[in-house]
Amino acid sequence: MLPAEVSIREVGPRDGFQNEPETIRTEDKLRLIGILLDAGLRRIELTSFVRSDVIPQLSDAEEVLSGIEPRDGVVYSALVPNLRGLDRALGFTDKLGEVSFFCSATESHNRANVNRSIEESLGELEQAVGKASDSGLRCVSVISVSFGCPYEGRVEPETVFGIAERLVAAGCDEIGFGDTTGMANPRQVGEFFVAASERLDGTELTAHFHNTRGQGLANALAALEAGVCSFESSFGELGGCPFPPGATGNIATEDLVGMLEEMGIDTGVDSAAVVRASAAAQEILGRPLGSHVLTAGPVDWSGPEQSPEA
What we know:
Layout: E1 7-10, H1 12-16, H2 26-38, E2 43-48, H3 61-67, E3 75-79, H4 83-89, E4 96-104, H5 107-114, H6 118-134, E5 138-144, E6 148-149, E7 153-154, H7 157-170, E8 174-179, H8 186-199, E9 204-209, H9 216-225, E10 230-233, H10 253-262, H11 271-285, H12 292-296
Parallel strand pairs: 1-2, 1-10, 2-3, 3-4, 4-5, 5-8, 8-9, 9-10
Antiparallel strand pairs: 6-7
Helix pairs in contact: 2-11, 6-7, 8-9, 10-11
């Protein structure tokens, strides 16, 4: 049975912006975030507390959080790579409701991403999660390449679940599973989340799909059918992992919302308003974005007026 409603965390301001080669002005980021908030999005990942030399695009993390205003019913989050990043995030507990951590499911990807072994990453994350929880922040961890790795190929679910169980034991309230380079297929996704819900009973499970090979929404549907009601997406289909050739971004928020609403599943989000954010981002970036709803518009069931000859 499909859920009656789902929760969507918008990750465009972090995951989407971080791969853009040209610097986006802080004021433009804040304007886009404002449009997303007006669209009804209630969970937004605003930035990441990474080193500015690693991801220059997010070097204005403090400025973004200083410029954002709290809103009733809205939860802001930030990605935190390590204890040092967490210390920076703790300066904004008046704005942030949660922090997100990350680890890869394979040694090769974790080395490429953060130059650490999985065990080294987990050791520091366990400390960071405890410290964040003690500070009153809700903790989310995303496991990258949960379904397939560009270096090591297929990833066994048992490996992913073992990492997830350690993160839950450390105090994580939510575990996200990332199809970081778009390698997953719907059958695999469905089987994965059925097993995950059994292994991680009581933990919020979130699906994070990329549309690299055009299967993002199909995988979202498979996750829905397996009982998932929490997703991450990015307006305009911004983002994407830099590793595979031709990689595109995360599934577009307006595409996901449009599909869910057409299916009668409540998101609380106005997809047409999200499209306005994507259109504004196109102007700022000076290039077209990959969202289908942005290009074709939402479904219009009234249909065009027919000419007498039609």
